[in-house]
Amino acid sequence: MFGRLTLIAFVALFALAAPVSAQAPGAARPAEEDTSSTNRTVFPASLAGRWTSAPLELALTSEFHQSVYGAGASSVRSVAMTIQPSGEGVFTVTSRVRDRRGRVVPGTQEIEEVRFSVGDLVEQPGRQPHYTSRIVKAERRFADDPSSAFARDGVTLALYVPEGKPGTLEVRFDTPEGTGSFWETVRRTAARAGAQPPS
User: Fold this and answer.
1) 194 in a domain, yes or no?
2) Which residue range(s) make up the domain with 103?
3) What's the confidence (pLDDT) of residue 107?
4) What is the pLDDT, as a whole number, of residue 50?
5) Is residue 196 assigned to a domain?
6) Is residue 22 part of a domain?
7) How many domains, in total, are found in the chain?
8) 88-98 and 38-40: which strand pairing?
9) pTM (two decimals)
């Protein structure tokens, strides 16, 4: 049964990828593209801290999804990011399916965790300046099955600081295959000892 739910979870969570990609604030090229740019290795202290997104919820209305989860189910994605004063950080994407009563369906909670260090500030004509990152380790796993973890080679992460919007960052996460890539707005939150990513 768990194996079937795991397969279904991949199908359900895939629904998050397509509409979210449309949130990109202008730039359509890969985050690491670096033509006619100026790089400055400067890590501002303002980036240090804990950042979280509002949950992105999408209703699962297809006949297939309703046959598995019942009417009223939805897929939910949350993003959390912590950056240390040294520039080292952890970026976490938590995706899951909730039933009509808001309960997480067993076997559907997936966690993508990326450990990184903030890189150069890239400034390109006609594009918003952004910070690149060096990926130290990236993996994906199901919360119900720690042994399901596997490496996510080739992912990239870029951080944009919007002008006139203090306390917010635009994060661009890209996968080598494109599926699961997205933009997200995260906001600074008060740090809490032992805090876990949103569920």
Assistant:
1) no
2) 2-189
3) 92
4) 97
5) no
6) yes
7) 1
8) unpaired
9) 0.76
